[in-house]
Amino acid sequence: MIQLVYGSRASRPVRFAELCKLLALAQRKNAARGVTGKLCFDGKCFVQVLEGDRDDVNAVYHHIARDPRHQELQILSVCEVEVRSFAEWHMAYCGVSEASKAVLERLGIPSLDPLELSAEAALAVLTDLPSLAKPEAVEAA
Fold first, then answer.
1. Which pLDDT score, from 0 to 100, does residue 137 have?
2. Which are the contacts of 4, defined by CB distance < 8 A and separation ≥ 6?
3. Residues 134, 138, 139, 141, CA torsion sign
4. DSSP-assigned letter for residue 66
5. What are the backbone angles phi and psi of residue 92, rounded to the nearest 5°?
6. Domain extents for the chain?
7. Distance CA 128, CA 49 (A)
8. Measured by CB atoms within 10 angstroms of the end CB, which terminus of the chain is less buried, N or C?
9. pTM above 0.85?
10. 83 with 60: CB under 8 angstroms?
11. Residue 68 has what DSSP assignment?
12. Which range, 3-17, 88-102, 105-119, is most confident?
């Protein structure tokens, strides 16, 4: 099993309603593939971790890479893992709010810009920022 962490810049503004639909679709497709993970979006940049079988994670990542909402994609890390860090989520979501800015400050991370973010910092953000919605809540949106 692998864990892939990537970041990208949004190529255009993404509305929250569009993001909710994207998350619901990702949750369904990832569940079918056995992929888990978490997405963080601050309005300008995406940081995401994907976990699962190598072929399935690669297929999901290549689909994301073709999505016109992303530009300047950077794979920050790919590693073998024995245990999933986000096993309970087919795609969790965390946004950047005033409360989560304190977490970013504590971690010493000024932004989610993938061109400035290390793999360790990206994973710390994804791990430390709380998930804002359970999958069922996002799907209902």
1. 42
2. 49, 50, 51, 57, 58, 61, 75, 77, 78
3. positive
4. T
5. -80, 165
6. 2-140
7. 13
8. C
9. yes
10. no
11. T
12. 3-17
- Residues 6 or more apart in contact with residue 97 via CB below 8 angstroms: none
* Residue 46 β-bridge partners: 8, 41
Q: What would the pLDDT profile of 2-41 be if each residue is shown by its tens digit?
A: 999 999 999 999 988 898 899 999 999 999 999 999 999 8
Question: Which of 37, 49, 130 shows the shortest CA–CA distance to 88?
Answer: 37
The number of residues making up the chain comes to 141
CATH of span 2-140: 3.30.70.100
The per-residue pLDDT for range 42-79, each reduced to its tens digit, is: 889 999 999 999 999 999 999 999 999 999 999 999 99
